[in-house]
């Protein structure tokens, strides 16, 4: 690996994004679980549910602040490290980020203060409302950031403007209802709900193993298992495969995930396992399951899924076409007025403009893409193939964890329904041992989606090599070292506080409506209980 | 989508310039007192209990306030992409220092009181001080550099090149602006503490508030004089289309002494901004003395509004001048998003900003009143 600006900028982005994404899934899911628990409290009036909400709320808070703290970095580092990207696509990409702030972050952050500080200052329903706002806010933020990210994967509704040298929005609704974004949103929040369910299940299982906080642990497990079963099924079935045929590079990603080097007749077989080899351009020892890939990928028996070689050849054609567009653009920019632009240049640009981004791939090798040699053009076409083994394995491990979680949650739903939670110890041990799995799956999911997006920052529009800021390697090394140090210290502290809070367990809680007076001991009327 | 033509491109650009001001002022007014309280933490609170009181005055609200900063980043990205790209990449290490300090803050609030250890708490108190002081200082330094112009160039494909260094940012005028920013936000934070605490803490806050306000008035006056004497302004010397495509390379610009004061000569009403900056601060001095706590906080908001507005008005239509290539300076007329994006973002803002103001106000009303010992020791959720 070379320590150039592009590599280091990518490294820093990956570090900060992967780190940020350690906290986000739990926030997404736990906020919804808190809302569910508190709803039960408000409906039944039974204080144990309030105590539960407060306990899981404490853990939520420890996790939430780091999500907030690391999220600030995400909002600013596009401008810091990816200044050409920010200029080139800010017209479209900036909007969902700003809307995320307006619609989601304010809601989430204002009400999270009331969630923690408002227990004694608000009515039961008022507080429940605050909790709902936190859950809605965090889920909305996932929606908007995935609309932004979906556009990076599948840039719809926008057009290049040669006067401003950037992409500009032409149809905002297309950006909003981008199928890739919608698929990724559902998949990501499902994964978040699953993460929180596994977390609640695992921690509760630990209490049952230790024989403490049994009432709270059992209730928590029941709610986590039912919620987690739905979430895990949704995360697996509604994986973001749905979007994989939408675009050229999504097809490339799909082929890389499958290690499918050559196009197969439809319906393609699914490679269960094998050893993909970038040098030999083949997958050794592949075990195929006939038809499955074609069915998953296309939901049809006749649609052909293109293989890596075919897509690579197609990329080369687009690079050559993009070079014509690039040349026409230079003529356009060099003309003193718009009227002075030669009409042929405009005509060529209109015909080949969609491939402009492909010409920019050559900037990895030459400053002016028009000076690229044949060899460099072929190398740039090969660059459109992501690192196959990484995608192949990340995806398989993620999916394996997904299926395992469906089984785990299903099993605990059955135990809970038959009131057998905590009877035998081995399922509890499995639940505790599974605690880290959803995080591993989430990080691998990010790698599959974003590492798999390479060499593009914006698919087909702007290659990563062209997206970076003009800066020094020293500055980048300083910030990478700084973030690494800061983030390492913080995660050590976070884990220790989290473990301490779990060890301490749920605290006795006074219900403001039945504080000390004896009448509080009278049975309450569970009017609204289901 | 033809709807966006309901508003002219130049009108939208001016509206978004005003909204840029609203966001910056919103951040300084809302998150500003959190930063100020962070800076005052080691001084206004002596015992652990006092420090917890100080932290808990902002405990329930800092999170929402901080979103003003995040929204600021997002909105600049959406409405002024070149400004976002040039300033954040140019001020790279300064931005990193701000981010590192800001990361410490949420964590500090949340984690400080989770352990009893005195060392643990003292370290977090330091972190919270840094989390207030460093952003306040650097934001001011950044504004000082923007007023002087920033050494960036634009290539023919609008790629950004930055010729400056981190230490180049720390010039005397910029440091003066940085200190002004520190003083201004300390004043604001002190006024918040006076309102939300009582006894010794409030007494100390009142004293520090008075000092910070005097410093604000002095530094603002010095800043104005230094701007007049030592800082050259910028003027557009070619024709510029206010409704043209956002291409910063299509104009010529000239550096000229006193140009930052030309707007005040052309539009005397603009003098209201600096007047408000001074007047607000003077009224803070009176309010602190007369113990009008609510009014005092309002006065410091007015002062901040006046000070920030005066910077924006002096520079209009410039938003980021370039020393290295003055013609590439970013202005309101050539550094915005497209007509359609500005319109869409305006619609979204018009819908959501009033909602945000409404529920934020509701939250503050709910949390109204002074924070005292019982709040800390009584509930389980105080920081």
Automatic annotation (TrEMBL), chain A:
Chief localisation class: membrane
GO molecular function, one term: oxidoreductase activity
Cellular localization per UniProt: Cell inner membrane
Keywords: Cell inner membrane, Cell membrane, Electron transport, Heme, Iron, Membrane, Metal-binding, Oxidoreductase, Transmembrane, Transmembrane helix, Transport
EC code(s) of this entry: 1.10.3.-
Superkingdom of the organism of origin: Bacteria
InterPro entries tied to this protein: Cyt-d_ubiquinol_oxidase_su_1 (IPR002585)
Primary enzyme class: oxidoreductase
Chain residue ranges for the region called Disordered: 509-530
Transmembrane segments: 20-43, 55-73, 93-117, 129-147, 185-209, 221-239, 393-416, 428-447, 473-493
Membrane topology term: Multi-pass membrane protein
Family: Belongs to the cytochrome ubiquinol oxidase subunit 1 family.
Name assigned to this protein: Cytochrome ubiquinol oxidase subunit I
UniProtKB/TrEMBL annotation, chain B:
Membrane topology: Multi-pass membrane protein
InterPro entries linked: Cyt-d_oxidase_su2 (IPR003317)
TM stretches of this protein: 15-41, 53-77, 83-107, 127-147, 167-187, 208-231, 266-286, 298-320, 340-362
Pfam families: Cyt_bd_oxida_II (PF02322)
Keywords, comma-separated and alphabetical: Cell membrane, Electron transport, Heme, Iron, Membrane, Metal-binding, Transmembrane, Transmembrane helix, Transport
Subcellular location per the Swiss-Prot or TrEMBL entry: Cell membrane
The keyword 4Fe-4S is annotated on this UniProt entry: no
PANTHER family from the UniProt entry: CYTOCHROME BD-I UBIQUINOL OXIDASE SUBUNIT 2 (PTHR43141:SF5), CYTOCHROME BD2 SUBUNIT II (PTHR43141)
Protein family per UniProt: Belongs to the cytochrome ubiquinol oxidase subunit 2 family.
Record-given protein name: Cytochrome d ubiquinol oxidase subunit II
Organism: Pseudogemmobacter lacusdianii
Underlying gene: cydB
